C-alpha cells in the first residue's frame, strides 16, 4: 500500500482572512446593487427635460424647508415638552445608612483583630514586592479593587480610636 500525504501549499485560512473575505464580498455586492439602482433610476428619468428637473428640485426644497420649519416651531412652542414626564428621585424607605450602622454594631476593634489586619496587609504588600507573588497580588487587586483601601481605612479608624 502506498500512502500519499499531500501537503497544503496554502496556509489554513485564519478568522481574519475569512472576515476580510466576507467584507470584500459584501462590498462587491453592495457596489453591484448601487450600480443596478443607478441604472434603473437613469432609465426612469432619461426623458425628463431641464424644466422638469427644476420643478422637482423646487418641490423638494419647499418640502424639506416646510418640514424643518414645522419641527423648529413645534419645538419652540413647547408641545413636545408637555409629553416629557419628570419623576422625582425618592430615597427608599428601607435604605440603611452603612456608615452609622457599622459604627453602632462594632464601635471598637479589638487588638487581635487589628493585628490580623496588619498581618494581612503586610502579606499582601510582600506579595506585590516579590516576583513570584506578583501574579497573585495583581489578581487580588483586579478582583478585589477596594480591599487595600478598606484595610487602610480600618487602620485609620483604629488609630483614631486610640487617640480618643
Kindly describe this structure.
By secondary structure, the chain is mainly alpha-helical. It folds into two domains: 15-82, no CATH class; 98-163. Helices cover 71% and strands 0% of the residues. The protein is built from seven helices and no strands. It has helices at residues 15-44, 50-77, 79-82, 98-105, 111-129, 134-143, 147-163. Helix 5 packs antiparallel against helix 7 (147-163). It is elongated and about 95 Å long.
Ranges where pLDDT stays below 50 over 5 or more residues in a row are none
Question: Which oligomeric state applies?
Answer: single chain
> How many domains in all?
2
β-strand amount: under 5%
Mean pLDDT across every amino acid position? 80
Number of strands: 0
Main structural class:
mainly alpha
Helical segment count: 7
Instruction: Give the SSE string.
Output: HHHHHHH
The rough form would be described as elongated
Query: What is the alpha-carbon Rg in Å?
Result: 36 Å
Give the N-terminus to C-terminus distance in angstroms. Answer: 94 Å
